[in-house]
Write a structure and sequence with these properties.
Two copies of one chain form a homodimer.
Chain A: E1 2-6, E2 9-14, E3 17-23, E4 29-41, E5 44-56, E6 59-63, E7 66-70, E8 77-85, E9 91-97, E10 104-110, E11 117-121, E12 133-136, H1 150-159, E13 171-177, E14 181-186, E15 191-194, E16 200-205, E17 211-216, H2 220-231, E18 245-248, H3 253-265, E19 270-274, E20 281-284, E21 287-290, H4 304-313, E22 317-322, E23 325-327, H5 332-338, E24 352-354, E25 359-362, H6 368-384, E26 390-393, H7 412-415, H8 419-433, E27 441-443, H9 451-454, E28 458-459, H10 473-485, E29 491-492, H11 508-518, H12 542-557, H13 559-572, E30 577-578, E31 597-599, E32 603-605, E33 615-620, E34 625-628, E35 634-636, E36 639-644, E37 652-655, H14 661-665
Chain lengths: 671, 671
């Protein structure tokens, strides 16, 4: 990249492309002072900001290759920027802050009118971010996430939990532009990326960021490769994952295992059983909740150790559940308190967080002793030694910002977004220390920059058990595509969704459509949902269990192809589920598609995500001949086509000349 | 007032009180550039602002009694402020803008932690404004006005019309502080007054205002007197108003007049009949709407001219309805279009506004020819010559800000808030030109600075037909008290409320409680509501009509007292309905009370505004002995008391030693 002086300012260019332009009439940099108000209620944050000062740094001067920025030529320099070349195509702007009072930073990057922008972590509502702004702050994603729906209204009213389009468990201050560049901001502060303007993007960060990285490449795939190297790649999937579905079951030993055996007897291919209640439950007025004391509950699962051994002999794995909190009334809490492993409040007591009729201490992962203890006592001793092969590493988004003090002395406001990768790293290290990386599968919904390196598998969080636009089945695809662009190769979701509130119930149809999609993701896993008794379950109906059996067998059938994708993920950083445009750059019709995906380079999946439909309209990218898996019909790309879409036959197309054509062609014969 | 230099800045003080303090460490003035986005949908505005620059003017220098303000001592002066003394106690800061690019202005005024603040026009939700911010932009007030209610949710969803606590037909950039000062900003731009901070108030204005006025006084009554002189006082009430209620009836001649005769026959004291459909109706999918072509509909009211004459002989007046728009399909529209009396769009065509299945032209009151024509052709010829004695001068809040151009060449964004007083002035001048000021009673819901001078009577706008916290009966009191402090002496409301949507229906109880309150306001007027057939009406029930009769007789009974209050309003500017604290400054318990009021100095009214209650708790101010009107019980002030509160006996208390004690004591004997 090149830095050039221009009239009244400077420009950063790569070949002919202007990546940054700053002049006194149109400054790219602003600094200021803001006064924020952050209120947390059970993982939902109400955040307001008052901008006290916002100073355009109109005046720039290049001195010894350093850019000095000031309000005007007579006033003091506020920022010094040094350009660090990462490669011929990539640069880092290192920013030095001269006035320590400043706590707000804005940068404008040139935009084109027809430009698209993707990324910002795992976005659930909008894949192309243009036309909206995206606050970046890890939190609960909201229930309904659409202010025009009754469920969002009621969730807002009763739980402050309705959410909006931008709420996500996994934000990240990184975006990819259709102009073939990516931009990443090195900061864990609250940020707000604004893509609403025609001629510029404006990134807001609630500190002066240490640096900003800009990557360019000739193709989107090359850009993904670079980002995946930058943020870290995941280990390959464990071999046992390919064996079939992981059944999410709870309700104690007898219930869980007998239902699994029934599924196996009915032909379901089972890779594992996931009992999130392995550590016990507690009764609250909301219903049953897990008991947050991360060790085997001998009461609920009396023979679990033996059970795990015998399952493993049958090549079936057991998965558990863990979060980065310990409940006050558990056995582990006093031990951790004794060792000062929790974040503390102003009084020096454990900073307790309300999770709904029970309080927890926050394990302080900035304290090396906490990390050691959690790895050793919880993950290694209580989980790995028991024979557990994986777990949901839940939460990570709740770090309060008020009256909470951490071992590393850094303001909780700056550590809030950093928490998910910290939590991921504790899990990853515990596994690695036992030499089990790539053999153990834990999965997380919370994320931030760095998650890529530590978390082997994302899970899309808590969708509603429905087809709703902003919280239903289709949002999982958007989550996979946006996070995939930033180097998260593996993504999956709760089959059937999770959240059932205010009369919203999972139907047989929703469950089965979700199974249809999940067979074309790197991991299949069911979830009973938050209210198992009121929602449709996989074994409630003989047809459904037969359908599940068939789709798990299709998933197994595709093992050779999935392993090929896993190798690509490992070598190139390509996600298993990819936006259409990364393989069809020439076809701009693909740039906004967020409910279809390429499962690898050769298979196009278009999950049905509406109720009561018998056919489905799919866009097939141009300059390719496609084969419809279900009827072997040949179709020229570059058009929308409508195909039959019964349950059990999700719209699926492969490239005619794929090396995997025979494997794909055999899908309809799998039973 | 005194202007003094202090270390690093200056202070404005009155006696010992610091009214403005500016230093380089804690500047009071900020200027900047904002980029707003204003969307209108049927009088509901979605307004967003992006602050591009916000520069603290830290550096101040006093040169020849002028304050020069700049970012720092090396940069150019941005504002020059001259202090103009209005009196010994009152000052005006005249502001000169040196950089024409600036379009945002913020000023901070010192605040005390326990300070209260009132005013900002007619506020419907919160009387004490402390702890919240108040955008000041005339608009529809919203339906429900509470994001936690179903009616607001549905109104937002279907009509963008739910509103919030600060939405009002009548905002005004003026506030009164419990520190015995008032502050007024001379600007019609969008403003946002922020009273959320402990140690300062921050006023935001979307232009550099011409000036800011600060008034001080030793008592709140003196402050009101000053403000009422500053903004203009209203004429006295017409004599005919005292005769009783104005019955709002529509449905054509036969229906309206026969129902009025029935009411009179049942003992209701009637001052007038108000037929808003006098100009005809139109059918829309929403139901019947008025036909916006402001002339007598001979079809709907065939004998209206004769009718008005004969009613007047019986001392009953006829009231009509008018708005500042003309529908495209009416007879007046082509006449006004021919004369270029409408606001225009970019193409030079009439800028049409959608009012819901019909379009209207906006009469451009910045054009002297429009004013003349509306006064002469509509108000004088079509209304006064017909014998009309008053009217609802509806609307005034809808001036669009995009693609609308006015005769005076000023940006519609700056004229939007100016529109209500412009509309009021056209009405007032038309009346004055006929020598009928004080004889004709028109009433408006829309307002802004200057409304005081032109509008003889406020009407509280469109409440819901219920007891809801943010859009029901009690909000009318808040509206009367806040607008009253700023010099609007006369306020009243639609008896029974107006808005019935999404299943919300007016009950007998709501109607009767509203009558109970209205008897203690300067004017009683019923309204059928937006859906007459589905809502309770005054003549639907023999008990209700008897109750209305009794309360209109109580209203008449109080005529001598009300005339006394009207004289006070004329001579001192005191509103008829007053916050308790203006008469009880020593009792700070009164400062937050917004659901009780003093009806003049001597009568305390505490309307019942909840469903299904039989008793009511009232605060009686300290250092006074009170008499309960209904049972003559004597109570020492300075306490909350609970009294029986059946319908027909709204909690009412008078000062024991009032000169009007006999009149008040006789209230229970009125039948």
């Amino acid at each position: 990249m090149e830095l050039n002086q221009i009239n009244g300012g400077f420009q950063l260019t790569q070949n002919e492309q202007v990546l940054l332009s700053h002049t006194n009439r149109s400054p790219a940099f602003f600094v200021g002072i803001g006064k924020e108000k952050i209120e947390i209620y059970r993982g939902n944050f109400a955040i307001e900001d008052t901008i006290v000062e916002r100073i355009p740094l109109k005046h720039s001067k290049i001195i010894n290759n350093e850019i000095h920025l000031a309000y005007d030529e007579l006033t003091a320099t506020q920022l010094i920027i040094r350009l660090d070349s990462l490669s011929l195509q990539d640069s880092k702007l290192i920013i030095e802050q001269l006035d320590s009072q400043l706590n707000r930073f804005w940068i404008r990057l040139p935009a084109q009118e027809d430009e698209k922008v993707w990324g910002c972590g795992e976005q659930m509502s909008y894949f192309n971010l243009r036309g909206r702004h995206f606050p970046l702050w890890t939190s609960e994603p909201g229930v309904g996430r659409d202010k025009n729906t009754e469920i969002t209204f009621l969730s807002d009213k009763y739980n402050k939990a309705g959410g909006d389009y931008y709420h996500t468990n996994y934000p990240q201050p990184t975006f990819v532009s259709s102009q073939h560049y990516a931009c990443h901001v090195n900061s864990t502060a609250y940020a707000d990326f604004d893509f609403r303007n025609t001629d510029y993007h404006e990134l807001q960060i609630w500190e002066i960021p240490k640096s900003i990285e800009i990557y360019t490449a000739l193709s989107f795939l090359d850009l993904i490769e670079k980002l995946s190297l930058r943020f870290g790649r995941q280990p390959k999937l464990p071999e046992w994952i390919y064996n079939g579905v992981i059944l999410g079951l709870k309700g104690g030993e007898e219930n869980s295992f007998s239902r699994m055996e029934n599924a196996i007897a009915k032909g379901v291919s089972v890779a594992g059983i996931w009992c999130e209640d392995w550590a016990g439950i507690r009764q609250t007025s909301f219903g049953k909740r897990l008991f947050w004391d991360w060790k085997w509950s001998k009461k609920r699962y009396p023979n679990l150790d033996e059970k795990i051994k015998s399952l493993r002999e049958r090549n079936i794995r057991f998965l558990a559940y863990v979060s980065p909190y310990l409940c006050e009334d558990g056995e582990l809490y006093p031990l951790a308190k004794e060792k000062n492993l929790f974040a503390i409040n102003k009084q020096g007591d454990v900073a307790l967080v309300d999770f709904g009729e029970f309080n927890c201490g926050v394990l302080d992962f900035t304290n090396p002793e906490t990390r050691e203890w959690v790895k050793k006592e919880i993950i290694q001793k209580n989980m790995l030694d028991l024979g557990v092969s994986g777990w949901m590493a839940d939460f990570g988004e709740y770090l309060p910002t008020n009256d909470l003090y951490l071992h590393n002395g850094i303001d909780a406001k700056l550590m809030h977004n950093a928490w998910p990768p910290l939590w991921a790293s504790v899990n990853a290290e515990a596994v690695a220390e036992r030499g089990l990386t790539g053999e153990i599968m834990f999965f997380m919904r919370a994320g931030f920059t760095g998650t890529q390196k530590f978390c082997p598998m994302l899970w899309a969080g808590d969708q509603c058990v429905d087809f709703s636009r902003h919280d239903g089945l289709n949002t999982v695809i958007c989550g996979a595509l946006s996070s995939g662009l930033l180097g998260n190769a593996y993504h999956h979701s709760d089959i059937g969704g999770y959240t059932s509130l205010f009369g919203n119930r999972r139907t047989k149809e929703v469950f089965e459509r979700w199974v249809d999609m999940a067979a074309f993701t790197p991991m299949m896993r069911t979830h009973e949902g938050n209210r198992p008794d009121e929602n449709f379950q996989f074994d409630q109906d003989v047809n459904t269990i037969a359908h599940l059996a068939k789709m798990t067998n299709i998933y197994r059938h595709l093992t050779p192809y999935l392993k090929h994708l896993v190798n690509e993920a490992s070598e190139k950083g390509y996600p298993v589920q990819r936006p259409l445009f990364v393989h069809f750059e020439h076809d701009e019709n693909t740039y906004d598609i967020q409910d279809q995906y390429m499962y690898g380079a050769d298979l196009l999946v278009s999950p049905v995500h509406k109720q009561g439909v018998g056919e489905w309209t799919v866009y097939l990218p141009a300059q390719e001949t496609w084969i419809n898996v279900w009827n072997q019909q040949e179709i020229q790309g570059g058009q929308y086509i409508t195909v039959p879409a019964p349950i059990g036959q999700p719209p699926l197309f492969y490239r005619k000349n794929s090396q995997w054509a025979d494997l794909f062609a055999a899908i309809p014969r799998v039973s």
